[in-house]
Design goal:
The protein is an alpha/beta fold and 281 residues long. It has eleven helices and ten strands. The strands form two sheets. The protein has a six-stranded mixed beta sheet with strand order 1-2-3-5-7-10, sandwiched between helices.
């Protein structure tokens, strides 16, 4: 992996860029990559920069083999137990979690080790996730008298109701295969095959037109909260705008002529509009 810039080892989030993939590695291994306010600030800054960077096609978020992320820094919370600090902390975390689905690029979580509480939330907030067979997931706050209320938001939008409630009420770990079965992750691989699984998943995304992926991602999250008829009206407009765009014309021409499409990935083309210019939200 080629580093886009030299970073000191004390950075809490280490970014490396290679061939359109921005890799963000959480770097608090001694604290199980827990989400301190400082780490969340660095991660937010990186995501905000990536959102404006047309050279980034996919974002890969990872921890290390011991822990993807152990949730909030409980020592920090215990030492700042006033309402003002706690309110600011959870607002910061909620903004971070909402940034992930709002990012134009697909975001993939690579999970080794544990992902607990807000760390499990972080996995659920990503668009896709894959994990090793040794990964474990939990919304464990209830065991310490702190119900995982904010992690519940992302978890309940990924996992079926009763399994989600089981995780929230018991705080118990689930393993990789159950996480796959319940929809929290997309695939599971042995630890030694994680690099291959990552490369395969990235290849399946990187060969698609980035502007179309950005359009589809935005439309996906928008339509989720709509009634059925409204969702169809909205997505009908989306697909018309998509069909009139150069990427769709190239794709259909390539199909008709039995060749591989050649996407115009030049920066500065601008996004495909979700709706007609005279429409308003």
């Amino acid at each position: 992996m080629t580093e886009a810039r030299a970073l000191p080892t004390d950075d809490l989030v280490i970014r490396t860029d290679d061939q359109g993939v921005a890799r963000l590695r959480l770097n608090r291994p001694k604290a199980f990559n827990s989400l301190s306010t400082a780490l969340m600030t660095e991660l937010q800054d990186e995501l905000d920069a990536i959102a404006k960077d047309p050279t980034v096609r996919v974002v890969l978020l990872q921890g290390d083999r011991q822990a993807f992320c152990a949730g909030h820094d409980l020592k920090e919370m215990r030492s700042h137990s006033d309402r003002g600090f706690l309110g600011s902390l959870f607002q910061q975390c909620s903004r971070l979690m909402m940034t992930l689905p709002r990012l134009p690029q697909p975001v993939i979580a690579r999970v080794d080790g544990i992902a607990t509480a807000a760390g499990c939330q972080l996995v659920a907030a990503c668009d896709l996730a894959f994990c090793s067979t040794e990964a474990r997931f939990a919304t464990s706050g209830v065991k310490y008298g702190l119900f995982c209320s904010t992690p519940m938001v992302a978890l309940s939008r990924n996992v079926r109701r009763k399994p989600a409630m089981e995780m929230l009420l018991t705080g118990d770990f689930i393993g990789a295969e159950r996480a796959l079965a319940e929809g929290l992750v997309n695939l599971v691989a042995p630890p030694d095959d994680m690099d291959r699984a990552e490369a395969d998943l990235l290849a399946r995304i990187l060969d698609k037109p980035p502007r179309v992926l950005a359009l589809g991602k935005q439309a996906f999250y928008r339509q989720l909260g709509m009634p059925l008829a409204e969702a169809y009206a909205f997505t009908s407009e989306v697909i018309v705008n998509n069909a009139l765009d150069a990427d769709a014309r190239e794709g259909l021409d390539a199909f008709a002529n039995k060749r591989s499409p050649v996407w115009d990935d030049a920066p500065g083309r601008g996004p495909i509009p979700l709706k007609k210019p005279d429409d308003h939200d």
